[in-house]
Amino acid sequence: MDIAKAYDFTGKVVCITGGSRGLGHAMALGFAQAGASLAIASRKVESCHETVAEINALGRQGSAHACHVAKWDDCNRLFEEVIARWGRCDVLINNAGMSPIASSSLETSEDLYDKVLGVNLKGPFRLSALFGSQMVKDGGGAIINISSIASIRPTPDTAPYAAAKSGLNVITTAFAMEYGPSVRVNGIMCGPFITDVSKAWVHTDEFKQRAATYPSGRAGNADEVVGAALYFASPIASSYTTGVMLPIEGGSSFPKTGRG
Q: May I ask the CATH architecture of the domain 3-240?
């Protein structure tokens, strides 16, 4: 294998939802450095334009798109805009998500439940159907779903979120079957990462004490997800990999019970 060629995305178009901050922002800059052009989508188009400016500074091209992935019509419009702007999409990364915590399951409102399921599951389903079917027509591509370790190790305070991400794992397999062999569909189950979304709790003493029990001893940095995304996106490096859910969680799902 020619490693340099395997991770050269020059001429490739990558669409990332939630691409203006956190893990999505880190992946956007990573793909730009690897030569790709980027379509950045989020609810706040201003922040998308800021990320596009960073991409331009790296000598690459980008486009900004306003999209609320929980809305079917927004997903349709994003797909149409990306195809109109770039002519195709080689890689779709369903990264947009939300993980609010309710005080209890009983106090979880219908509105909150619907929002969590809409952003984390409904949007990726619709976008995968739109982009995946087009990728088949165009001869191939890759879809990467950003899930959570909560999808296989849920807690009471994250039940709707965990359920949505578990559903995302399921449709990862389903779309891998439907759009294979030309389109590969994989996912990343993330543990706790340090992003602007997690800053409210990741720096608390409570979390630091819990993180000290992880084999890694800490939360992840956003750029530590980039390598996996590049691997799953590469038609050379991951040519025989599809329907896979990869945990990147620093051992947070199996904390140490003692010091050996």
A: 3-Layer(aba) Sandwich (3.40)
